[in-house]
Amino acid sequence: MVARMVALITVDWGLSSFRAWAHAEDGTIVGRVAEPAGCAGLSREAFAPTLARLLAPLPKATVAMCGMVGSRQGWVEAPYVPCPAGLDEVAARLIQVADGIWLAPGLCCDGVQPDVMRGEECQILGSGIVDGVLCLPGTHSKWARIEGGKVRRFATFLTGEFYALLRRHSILAHSTAAERDDAAAFAAGVRRSRDEGGLSHHLFGVRTLDLFGRPSGAAYLSGLLIGAEIVGASNLFPSARVTLIGAPALAARYARALGDSRADILGEDMAARGLWAIWRRRIQA
Question: Is the pTM for the entire model greater than 0.90?
Answer without folding.
Answer: yes
